[in-house]
Structure formats: structure tokens, C-alpha cells
């Protein structure tokens, strides 16, 4: 994802599993940025070991717990303007066009990547995700069943990534293996071994 820009991420079905997948997707992106990561929340439900499995080690993260959404937005913008951070992540239910423009300008000024994880306490709040914002990209993350292994065990998590909106580009969807301990996504092994000439469908992965 582009540095110096605001990006939106949400879980696909608004449930806890997809919400966790969205947070891990954001953690993997933040893990590949250089420098400290500021993570702004209103709820104490982040699981640091899971973020570490996605490449974002505890020593790189500064957590800010705010009392309400207005305070989260203020911390989000201040973090993006600071200039000394690699990424700033904030959990938000609502994001207006005005607020998102301020965040986008702040990200452009500092060069940091801003990731707004859209989280809702009530289903009715999810409709706000369809409203226009100034974010450069908008993603929806859905957890998929792991691929079967040749031996008993739990396979690597899989996600469906929906690129709902991208500035000056086209929407798309991808099926990938979830972030590894370096924050990297992966192609399925059977697709990765094929040449473009032997694969008739769309390529379903991002780097």
C-alpha cells in the first residue's frame, strides 16, 4: 500500500473473526513500514501475540487508549502529523469526508501510512462504511477456511481481500494466505507454481 496515504480496512461480515482478520491485515502492513507504529483504540481487546505473528513485534508498537471516537481521531491525526512514525493505525466506527481529508493531508505531510480499521459496536453503524471518504484505498477482509494439509494439523490462515475502492484504479478481489511473521501475504502454492500461460483465471494475490 502507498506510504504517505490513508487506507481503510474492515472485516467482511462485521463479526469478531473477520474483524480480527482485518486487524491482522493492518498489522502486517504496519510491520513492513519503517519505524514505530502508533495504534489508537477505544477497547482493550487487542492481542499482542497475534500481532507479533503478523510481523508487528510488541517493541515497535505504542498503544493509545482514548475515551471516545473524537479522541481517537485526534490521536490519529496527531500521530500522522508527527513525522517520526512509520505507521499509524486507528480503530473507528465512523469516518466522515472532512475527517478523512484531514488524515490524508497529515499522512501526505509526514510520509507515514495511515490505516483506519473500521469497527462497529452495532450493526447499524456498518452502513457508514459505504459512505465516501478521502482514503486512497478501501479494503474488506474475510476469513476463509485453511487449505488441507498432507499431515494432521492447522494450516496457515487464508483471507479473501476485497479492494472495494482505489484512487485512479479498479476494484478487485484476491484470495491469499494470511500474513507471516514478516507481515507478508502469500500466493497458494499451487498457483505460485503455475506459469501465466497455464492459469486461466485471475491472479488472486497481492505482494
Key descriptive features of the protein:
single chain; Rossmann fold; alpha/beta; globular; 5 helices; 207 residues
CATH class: Alpha Beta
Oligomer: single chain
Cα end-to-end separation: 9 Å
Number of strands: 8
Write down the overall mean pLDDT. 87
Number of helices: 5
Helix-strand string = EHEHEHEHEEEEH
The value of Rg in angstroms is 17 Å
CATH architecture: 3-Layer(aba) Sandwich
Note down, in words, how this protein is organized:
The structure is a single chain. This protein is an alpha/beta fold and 207 residues long. It has one domain: Rossmann fold, CATH 3.40.50.300. Helices cover 26% and strands 26% of the residues. An eight-stranded mixed β-sheet has the order 3-2-4-5-1-6-7-8, with helices on both faces.
Task: Compile the SSE list and pairings.
Blueprint: E1 6-11, H1 16-31, E2 36-41, H2 48-53, E3 61-65, H3 69-82, E4 85-92, H4 97-110, E5 113-118, E6 137-144, E7 158-166, E8 172-177, H5 189-192
Parallel strand pairs: 1-5, 1-6, 2-3, 2-4, 4-5
Antiparallel strand pairs: 6-7, 7-8
Question: What's a concise summary of this model?
Answer:
This protein is of the alpha/beta class and 207 residues long. The protein is built from five helices and eight strands; from the N terminus they run βαβαβαβαββββα. A hairpin with a 5-residue loop joins β7 and β8.
Amino acid at each position: 500500500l502507498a506510504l504517505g496515504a490513508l487506507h481503510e480496512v474492515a472485516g467482511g461480515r462485521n463479526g469478531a473473526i473477520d474483524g480480527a482478520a482485518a486487524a491482522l491485515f493492518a498489522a502486517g502492513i504496519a510491520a513492513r513500514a519503517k519505524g514505530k507504529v502508533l495504534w489508537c483504540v477505544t477497547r482493550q481487546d487487542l492481542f499482542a501475540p497475534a500481532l507479533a505473528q503478523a510481523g508487528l513485534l510488541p517493541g515497535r508498537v505504542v498503544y493509545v487508549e482514548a475515551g471516545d471516537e473524537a479522541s481517537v481521531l485526534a490521536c490519529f491525526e496527531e500521530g500522522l502529523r508527527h513525522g517520526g512514525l512509520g505507521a499509524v493505525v486507528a480503530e473507528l466506527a465512523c469516518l466522515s469526508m472532512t475527517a478523512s481529508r484531514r488524515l490524508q493531508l497529515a499522512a501526505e505531510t509526514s510520509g507515514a501510512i495511515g490505516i483506519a480499521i473500521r469497527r462497529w459496536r452495532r450493526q447499524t453503524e456498518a452502513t457508514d462504511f459505504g459512505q465516501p471518504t478521502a482514503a486512497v484505498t478501501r479494503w474488506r477482509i474475510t476469513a476463509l477456511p485453511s487449505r488441507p494439509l498432507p499431515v494432521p494439523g492447522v494450516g496457515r490462515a487464508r483471507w479473501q481481500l476485497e479492494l472495494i475502492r482505489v484512487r485512479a484504479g479498479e476494484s478487485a478481489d484476491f484470495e491469499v494466505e494470511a500474513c507471516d511473521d514478516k507481515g507478508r501475504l502469500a500466493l497458494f502454492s499451487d498457483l505460485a507454481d503455475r506459469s501465466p500461460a497455464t492459469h486461466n483465471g485471475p491472479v488472486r494475490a497481492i505482494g
